[in-house]
């Protein structure tokens, strides 16, 4: 016999609570729907890592992809509050960071301002200062150093624009700005700012091709 009491059933209570929850969610800003008070958005982290995976040829075994993914995780965990709750994630990040550094020779601290779809080609002897900035769609290859020029200026580091192509073994030192669409030749040592669209080679690096130029500059010193 069906219950005829005036009390609501469990399913009715559930539907009522569910409806209230939905209405509360609709009234919240979109940012609150993705992030709680304690944890930043896991969805955003996953989207970043997926984009990096695609940029690295859909190969999760590449050391460059692993280094970038751990960097994203390191940045993500800084949004966890309070610090006590963040502690185990920080411990995991440090372990993974050291694993990539010691195994693959890639130093990419979480403090680096890393743009979207940045690709680290190959592995070995890649050192990036924690105050560096690397723009979207840039490429970093093996043997590259982005670091200090003077030991008494520990916070000065290079800033790379978008779509910067850094050749193997290149060294960029000091508080310099590398413009968008710049090509840095292999083993070049860059000590000064580089304008947008330029190509630089040599030690110290010099501009051999400016933006929108189809032929390289002549080196008149070789003609004399």
Could you give a quick summary of the protein structure above?
The protein is an alpha/beta fold and 224 residues long.
Walkthrough of the structure:
- The chain has 224 residues and is an alpha/beta fold.
- The protein has two domains: 70 residues, no CATH class; 104 residues, UDP N-Acetylglucosamine Acyltransferase, domain 1, CATH 2.160.10.
- 35% of the residues lie in helices and 16% in strands.
- It contains six helices and 15 strands.
- A six-stranded mixed beta sheet has the order 3-6-9-12-14-15. A five-stranded parallel beta sheet has the order 1-4-7-10-13.
- It is globular.
User: Which sheet architecture does the biggest sheet show?
Assistant: 6 strands, mixed
CATH class descriptor of the largest domain: Mainly Beta
Note the total helix count: 6
Strand fraction = 15-25%
Q: How far is the first residue's CA from the last residue's CA? A: 109 Å
User: In angstroms, what is the radius of gyration?
Assistant: 25 Å
Per the CATH scheme, the topology name of the largest domain is UDP N-Acetylglucosamine Acyltransferase, domain 1
Q: How are the strands of the largest sheet arranged?
A: 3-6-9-12-14-15
- Write the H/E string, N to C: HHHHHEEEEEEEEEEEEEEEH
Q: Fraction of residues in helices?
A: 25-40%
What general form does the structure show?
A: globular
Could you give the count of β-strands?
15
Residue runs with pLDDT of under 50 for 5 or more positions: 1-37, 217-224
Structural class: alpha/beta
Total domain units: 2
**Can you name the CATH architecture of the largest domain?**
3 Solenoid
Corresponding CATH superfamily of the largest domain: Hexapeptide repeat proteins
Mean pLDDT across every amino acid position: 84
């Amino acid at each position: 016999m069906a219950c005829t009491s005036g009390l609501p059933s469990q399913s009715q209570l559930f539907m009522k609570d569910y409806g209230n929850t939905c209405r509360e969610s609709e009234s919240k800003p979109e940012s609150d729907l993705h992030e709680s008070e304690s944890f930043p958005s896991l969805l955003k982290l996953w989207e970043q890592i997926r984009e990096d995976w695609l940029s690295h040829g859909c190969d999760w075994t590449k050391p460059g992809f692993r280094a970038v993914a751990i960097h994203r995780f390191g940045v993500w965990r800084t949004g966890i509050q309070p610090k006590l709750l963040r502690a185990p994630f920080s411990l995991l990040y440090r372990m993974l960071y050291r694993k990539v550094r010691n195994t693959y020779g890639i130093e990419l601290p979480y403090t680096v301002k890393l743009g979207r779809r940045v690709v680290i080609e190959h592995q070995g002897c890649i050192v990036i200062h924690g105050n560096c900035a690397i723009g979207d769609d840039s490429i970093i290859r093996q043997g590259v150093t982005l670091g200090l020029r003077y030991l008494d200026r520990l916070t000065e580091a290079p800033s790379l624009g978008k779509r910067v192509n850094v050749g193997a073994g290149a060294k960029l030192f000091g508080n310099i700005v590398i413009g968008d669409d710049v090509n840095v030749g292999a083993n070049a040592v860059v000590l000064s700012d580089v304008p947008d669209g330029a190509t630089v080679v040599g030690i110290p690096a010099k501009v051999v091709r400016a933006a929108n130029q189809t032929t390289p500059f002549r080196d008149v010193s070789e003609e004399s």
